[in-house]
Amino acid sequence: MPRGRSKKAAASLKAGRSGGEGKDAGRQRPALRQMLETRGANFTRQREAVYDYLRQVDHHPTAEEVFVAVKRELPKIGLATVYKNLEALVACGAASKLTYGDSAARYEIRTDHHYHSRCLKCGLIADVPPAAGEQLIKLIKAPRGFKVEDCRIELLGHCKNCK
User: Fold this and answer.
1) What is the model's pLDDT at position 36?
2) Exposure pattern of 64-97 as b/e (b: 16+ CB <10 Å)?
3) What pTM does this model have?
4) What secondary structure does DSSP assign to 92-150, as a single string?
5) Average pLDDT of every residue of the chain
6) CA dihedral over 56, 57, 61, 66, signed as positive or negative
7) Any idea where the domains of the chain sit in the sequence?
């Protein structure tokens, strides 16, 4: 099983299913369809497969990683289509895009306000509980006259595998 993929995601993709298992997967469809249509985008099989993959993994994949995984389910899908669908999901608020300088963008299904830690050696990104970030924000004073709209907290270091 490739690094970072959950057993559930691997089993779902291997079996050729899109949508995962259980009641939660069925509830996601109408909400995703509505989010896309509100932004003028269509709900397509390709978009559904990309969304399902993001929903099922426990890491923050690159577009290329999403492409490799979704191609098992939809062999005719192209990398450009995956990029287009990821951007549509980000635009409608169903996914988030994480960018870090010159490195490849990473995507996640989690759209709530939260923070990340990033390994400087292997690039692994992990979620940091929001409460930890809120405590850090209280310690930071913005320059006088500066109106803070949002913040991004990223902890940089080395993961347990790269120490």
Assistant:
1) 92
2) ebbbebbbebbeebeeebbbbbbbbbeebebbbe
3) 0.72
4) TTSSEEE--TTSPPEEES--SS-EEEEETTT--EEEE-HHHHHHHHHH--PPTT-----
5) 81
6) negative
7) 7-108, 115-157
pLDDT at position 140 over 90:
no
Topology, domain 7-108:
Arc Repressor Mutant, subunit A (1.10.10)
Which one is predicted more confidently, 75 or 103? 75
Buried b (16+ CB within 10 A) or exposed e, 152-161: ebeeeeebee
Q: Take residue 81 and report the two structure tokens written for it.
A: 């289509």
For the domain 115-157, what is the CATH code? 3.30.1490
d(CA 35, CA 117): 29
